[in-house]
Write a structure and sequence with these properties.
- The protein has one domain: Fumarate Reductase Cytochrome B subunit, CATH 1.20.950.20.
- Helices cover 66% and strands 2% of the residues.
- It is built from 4 helices and 2 strands, in the order H-H-H-E-E-H.
- It has helices spanning 19-48, 54-84, 95-125, 145-180; strands at 130-131, 135-136.
Length: 193
C-alpha cells in the first residue's frame, strides 16, 4: 500500500511536513504549553489552597474549554495524518531512531486524545460541565463524584506523562538540530538553516 505524502517536494524540503500539518502541530503544541501549567495552577489554587472564587472558576473554565478544543484538534490531526500521510523519515537516522520517533509520535497522538477525553469524562461525572457560566459541555455519563475523583486523578497523571513525553520530543529535536545538525527539526520548521 502506498502512502500519500503531502509534502514540499523541492530540495531539502522534500522531508518537511505540509503547511497544514505544521500548522496543526504548532497550534497543538501551544495549547499543551498552556494546558499543563494551567492545570497545575487551577488544582493548586482550588484543591491545595481551597480557594474557590471567580479566578479559580475562570482557570477551570479555561482549562475545560481548551481541553475540549484540544480533543477535537487532535482528532482532526490524526485524521489528517491518516489521510495525507507523512513525509519520508529523515535519511540520516539510524533504524532504532526511526523506530523511537514513530513510537513517540504515535504515543503523543494517543495521549493527546486520551488526556482531554479523561478530563471530559471526569467533569461529566463530577458534574462540572459549565464553562464561564455561559454554556455546558455535553455530558458523557451520569454523575458519580467518587468515580469522578478517580478519573480526574488518572487524568492528571496521564497529563504529566504527556508533558514528559513532549519534553523528550523537544529535547530530541534540539539534539538533532544542535548536536547532530541533521534535518529532523527542519521537518516542522523548514525555514531553518
Amino acid at each position: 500500500m502506498t502512502q500519500r505524502h503531502d509534502e514540499v517536494t523541492t530540495g531539502a524540503g522534500r522531508f518537511a511536513y505540509s503547511r497544514g500539518a505544521r500548522t496543526l502541530h504548532w497550534i497543538t503544541a501551544a495549547a499543551v504549553f498552556v494546558m499543563v501549567p494551567l492545570g497545575f495552577a487551577m488544582t493548586y489554587r482550588g484543591n491545595t489552597l481551597d480557594i474557590w472564587d471567580g479566578v479559580t472558576d475562570a482557570l477551570y473554565s479555561t482549562h475545560k474549554l481548551i481541553g475540549f478544543l484540544v480533543l477535537w484538534l487532535s482528532a482532526g490531526r490524526l485524521i489528517y495524518r491518516l489521510l495525507r500521510g507523512a513525509p519520508p523519515d529523515e535519511p540520516t537516522l539510524e533504524w532504532w531512531q526511526k523506530a523511537a520517533s514513530h513510537l513517540v509520535h504515535w504515543a503523543l497522538y494517543g495521549l493527546l486524545l486520551i488526556v482531554p477525553l479523561l478530563g471530559w469524562i471526569g467533569i461529566t461525572l463530577f458534574p462540572s460541565l459549565t464553562v464561564f457560566g455561559l454554556f455546558d459541555l455535553p455530558a458523557l455519563a451520569a454523575p458519580n463524584e467518587e468515580v469522578a475523583k478517580r478519573v480526574l486523578f488518572v487524568h492528571g497523571w496521564v497529563a504529566i506523562l504527556l508533558a514528559l513525553l513532549v519534553c523528550g520530543h523537544i529535547a530530541a529535536a534540539l539534539f538533532h538540530y544542535f548536536i547532530r545538525k541533521d534535518g529532523v527539526l527542519r521537518r516542522m520548521l523548514p525555514g531553518l538553516k
